[in-house]
Design a protein that fits this description.
The protein has 9 helices and 5 strands. By secondary structure, the protein is of the alpha/beta class.
């Protein structure tokens, strides 16, 4: 199975790009959405409460995601702790999910901090959704109804766009300079071709998976 990581900084439009791939019939695993589900897991919940205290609970004794976000987006050490709790579980869950997509030519995991967490090696290819910081800030301000400083606080934990573009195998520019759909279609065709060649290789050499 060809595994593709789809990343991009906040406000880059990576989720929109992921949905375009989904309309093409490609299975997409949304890491952020899936990680939030783990907050309801009793074991995960207890680990988080040990680290961040019971003050982040709502009146219904559920983790208040906004309260948790307000802590981790202002403290890099706190963010690292939260990631250490959630990311290993998401990684395992994605692996199981990918194994279930046997009929797909390739699968995509949409995740914001692939490079930052050192998980780039988990994928065969990485697509980076590129966008100028000024445009991204404006998008997030409109979307989340927050001020520029709040957006910048979230951005401080992400690598620069140019650095990610240099590391990625594919780059989609979502800054208005190019149409996004043709870029997605071009990458899709290339990944389909790679998938076909990979399947043929495995069929002709069954031992290739063990080498």
């Amino acid at each position: 199975m060809v595994k593709v990581g789809l990343t991009g900084n906040i406000g880059s439009g990576k989720t929109t790009v992921a949905r375009i791939f989904a309309t093409l019939g490609i299975p997409v695993y949304y890491a952020d959405d899936e990680s939030k589900k783990f907050l309801d897991d009793p074991v995960v919940k207890n680990e988080i409460l040990k680290q961040f205290g019971y003050g982040i609970l709502t009146n219904n004794q559920e983790i208040n995601r906004r309260s948790l976000a307000s802590i981790v987006f202002t403290d890099p050490f706190a963010l690292e702790i939260l990631n250490s709790i959630l990311h290993p579980r998401v990684k395992v869950d994605f692996g199981k999910w990918a194994d279930e997509q046997a009929n797909a030519p390739y699968v995509i995991q949409e995740a914001a901090i692939i490079f930052e967490t050192g998980s780039a090696a988990d994928y065969n290819f990485i697509i980076h959704t590129s966008c100028a910081k000024e445009i991204a800030i404006d998008r997030v301000m409109r979307r989340d109804r927050i001020d520029a400083n709040s957006v910048l606080r979230r951005m401080q934990f992400q690598m620069e766009d140019a650095e990610k573009s240099a590391l990625a195998g594919f780059v989609i520019r979502n800054d208005g300079s190019e149409l996004v759909i043709p870029q997605v279609l071009d990458i899709h065709r290339k990944l389909l071709d790679i998938s076909i060649k990979t399947r043929n290789l495995h069929q002709n050499n069954p031992l290739s998976d063990e080498m």
